[in-house]
Amino acid sequence: MSAAPTPLLRVAGLQKLFPIRKGFLKRTAGYVRAVDGVSFHIDEGETLGLVGESGCGKTTTARCVLRAIEPTAGEIFMRVANGSVVELGQLRPAELRALRREMQMIFQDPFTSLNPRMTLLDLVGEPLLVHGMKSRREREERVADLLRRVGLRPEYMRRFPHAFSGGERQRIGIARALALHPRLVVADEPVSALDVSVQAQILNLLVDLQADLRLTYLFVAHDLSVVRHISNRVAVMYVGRMVELAKTDELYRAPRHPYTAALLSAAPEPDPRVRSRRLMLQGEVANPAAPPGGCYFHPRCPYAIDVCRTETPAWQEISPAHFVGCHRAHELQLAGVE
Amino acid sequence: MTREPLLSVRNLKTYFIQDEGLVKAVDGVSFDVAEGVTLGIVGESGCGKSVTARSILRIVDRPGRIVEGEIHFRRPSANGGPGRTVDLATLEPNGAEMRAIRGAEIALIFQEPMSSFSPVHTIGSQIVEAIRLHQPGGRREARDKTIELLRRVGVSSPEERVDQLSNQLSGGMRQRAMIAMALSCHPTLLIADEPTTALDVTTQTQILELMRQLQQEDGMAIMLITHDLGVIATMATDVAVMYLGRVVEQAPVDAIFHAPLHPYTRALLRSIPRIRSRARLVPIAGAVPHPYDRPTGCPFHPRCAEFKAGTCDRQEPRLTRIGDHHTVSCFLYE
User: Fold this and answer.
1) pTM given for the model
2) How many CA within 13 A on the CB side of residue A220?
3) Do residues B123 and B165 lie in contact, with contact meaning Cβ atoms separated by under 8 Å?
C-alpha cells in the first residue's frame, strides 16, 4: 500500500486570540480565546464539515485558514498546484496574493456580500481582472461559462444583483468564487440565509460542482442535517476547541463526545413520531473570554467527573481516524442517530 | 368538542398598498385555534405568516391594512364561563378594547429578543410596566410578581436579573425574560413568531421545552409561527402550511408529515435535509416569486410538479375538506 497522499490543507495548533481592551488607555485586560489550538487536515476532493454553536470559533477558524485574519499562533500548510507544500505564514504578501486564486470563499448572506452597484459581469469578472485577464471579450466568455455552470442564464450578465432571488444571488456568489479555478473553497453557512425550498438546490449544486471540478470544501455550518448531507468528515467545535472529528456517518451514528451527542439529540427532526427523549443540556455556552478550567464543556456535561474540572482533555485517536477530546471517551456509551 | 374555537380567522386579507404596486401579503386566510392547543403556522419568507400574526394583534404597519375578513376571538370572562366573542378586525387598533386584549389576553413573543426589549430600561421595569398596565396592584407587588415570573421561566438569580439591562443577558436568558413578560397577564393565546430562530440549537431545545411546560401548567393556546419544520414537528398539535398569503393545507401534525396532500407540502418535506439520511435532496424548482409578481390562479403553479395547464394558472383553487380535520387548497382534490 502506498503512503496516503499529502493532504491539500493541514492546520496545526491554530490559535486566534482577540484582545479585550478596557479603560481610557485601552490596556489589554484579557483575551477572547476564539480559536484555541485547533488541528485538522483536508484531503483533496474532500468536504470537511465544521459545526458548532455561535461563538465556538468555526468562522474564525475558516477565516484564519484563508488568512483573511492573521492567526495568533499555529501553522497552515497548503499543497499548491505544482505539488509543493507551503506554510501560509511564511509567505511574502505577493506570494500569498498569488496563492489566493487557489482558495476562495462563499459567504452566508447573498444580500450583503454582493456589491449592489456592480452587474453580474463585473461581480463575477472582477477576480479575473484582478488576476490578469485584461481582455473584456475573454472575460465575458468566461463569465458566461461560469453562470451556466451555476445554473444561471448568461443573458442575465448585465443585470444587477437586486433583480435576483436569494438562491440566485447565492449562485452568483458561487460563480464569483469559482472564477479563478480554486482548489480549496471555504463556505461559511452558505445556505442558512436561504428559504428551505431553495437550500436543497444550492446544496445539490455544491455537490455537483465538487464532482465536476474536483473541489475541496471546508464547509462551516450550524445545522447538523445540512452538514451530514455534504460532508465526508465532520469536526465539532466548542468554545474555540475541537471536541470531536470523525467520518460523517460514524460521528452521527456513534458520537464519542457528550457535546456531539447533545447536539445530535437537540436538532429538532421534521417528524412528529420521533419526538425523542432529548438529552437536554443545562446552562449555556461558556464565555470564551473567561472559559471554565479543565474541559470547557464540564459545567454542562452530564458525565463530568473531578478530572474534567481540572485538566484539559487530550486530543486522542480513539479509533482509526476518529478523534475526540474527552477524559471519559473510552467508557461512555452515547446515543447517536441512525 | 362542540365549543367554538378560541380564535377563528375567516378569509383574512391584509394588503399593503404602495406606489410600486399592491402587495397581497395575506390573501384570504382562514384557520381556527382551539383552546389549549398549539397551531403551527409554517411557510417560507413572504408567505404572510408574520403579517397574519400582526393582523390578529392589529399592529400591522402602514401602508398595510386589513381589507377584508373576520378575526373572531373569544374573550375570557371574569367568572370562568364562556366568554364573549369579538371580531378583532372591526376594533379600533388603538381603542380601549383592543388595548385590553393585546398584551394581556393575546400575548406575543418575537424572534429577536435583542430588539424587543428597550436597551435603556431594566428587564424588570419593562415587565412591571406590562403587569401594571393590565392588572390592579402597586409597584411593589408587580415587582414581586416579576421576580416570581422570571424564576418560573428559568432565569437564574432573578432577584439580580430583574435590575439588569437586556444587553447584560444572553440570548437564551433574554428570550426567557420575553416569555415571562408575555405570560405576566395570563394570556389565553400566545403568539410566538419564530421564537427560537435566533438561538443556538441547545438553547432552542430549552426554550421549546419551557414553552411546552408553561402551556401544560397554564392551558393557553399557542400559535407558533416558524419556517422550521423540525420545530413544528416537535411542538404543534395542528399545522397550517402557508404559501404566498394563503393557507394551502391544514391538518393535524401527524397527517401533515405522514399523509400530506398539497403538492407544496409534499415537495417541502422532500426538499429538507434530514439528520438521519445522506440521500440526494429533491429541491423545489424556482424560487418564491416576488410579491409584486404574484402568479395568477394557484400561487404555487409555476413551481408545481403536478401543474395542469388551463386550470391551475387560470382559476384559484378553493379550500376543500378531506376527512374531518384535513383541508387542502388544490385542484387535485376538487
Assistant:
1) 0.90
2) 22
3) yes
Contact A269 B275 (CB under 8 A): yes
Domain annotation covers residue B220:
yes
Cα separations in angstroms, A99 against A102, A184, B166, B194: 6, 11, 45, 43
Question: Does a structural domain hold residue B304?
Answer: yes
Residue B262 belongs to domain spanning: 7-105+185-333
Q: Give the best residue of A284, A287, A297, A338 to mutate against chain B (max B CB count within 10 A).
A: A284
* A117-152 core/surface letters (b: 16 or more CB in 10 A; e: else): eebbbbbbbbbbeeeeeeeeeebeebbbebbebbbb
pLDDT category of residue A141 using cuts at 50, 70 and 90: very high
Secondary structure of residue A228 in the 3-state scheme: helix
- Specify if B227 maps to a domain: yes
A222 neighbourhood in chain B, CB within 8 Å: 200-201
Predicted pLDDT at A54: 85
Output the domain CATH number for residue B53: 3.40.50.300
A195, A197, A268 ranked by CB distance to B234: nearest:
A268
Mutate to test the interface with A, among B39, B275, B290 (most CBs of A within 10 A): B275
Kindly report, residue by residue over A254-278, the tens digit of the pLDDT.
999 999 999 999 988 999 988 666 6
The distance of A266 to chain B (nearest Cα, Å) reads 6
Residues of A in contact with B287 (CB under 8 A): 165-168, 195, 197-198
Q: Which amino acid is at B303?
A: R
Average pLDDT, chain A: 91
Closest residue of B to A163, CA-based?
B290
User: In angstroms, rounded to a whole number, what is the distance separating the alpha carbons of residues B222 and B107?
Assistant: 10
Number of domains into which chain B is organized? 1
Contact residues on chain B for A236, CB-CB shorter than 8 A: none
| Predicted local confidence at residue B1, as pLDDT | 44
* Residue-level pLDDT at B2: 47
What CA–CA distance (Å, rounded) separates A220 from A75? 20
A vs B, Cβ pairs < 8 A, gives: 137
Q: How far is B225 from chain A (nearest CA, A)?
A: 15
- Contact in structure between B233 and A275 (CB atoms under 8 Å): yes
What the block records as the C-alpha cell of A57 is 470559533
- Which chain B residues are within 8 Å of A166, Cβ to Cβ? 45, 287
Interface contact A196-B258, CB threshold 8 A: no
Write the DSSP string, B42-100: E--TTSSHHHHHHHHHT-PPTTEEEEEEEEEEEPPPTTSS---EEEGGGS-TTSHHHHH
Amino acid A235: pLDDT: 98
Low-confidence ranges of chain B (pLDDT < 50): 1-2
Chain B hits for A285, CB-CB cut-off 8 Å, are 200, 202
B161 assigned to some structural domain: no
Q: Which residue has the cell 439520511?
A: B277
Rounded Cα distance, A68 and A272, in Å: 43
What's residue A83's pLDDT? 86
Q: Which three cell numbers stand for residue B211?
A: 414553552
- Residue ranges with strand state E in chain A: 9-22, 27-42, 47-51, 73-79, 85-87, 103-106, 184-188, 216-221, 233-238, 241-247, 316-319, 322-324
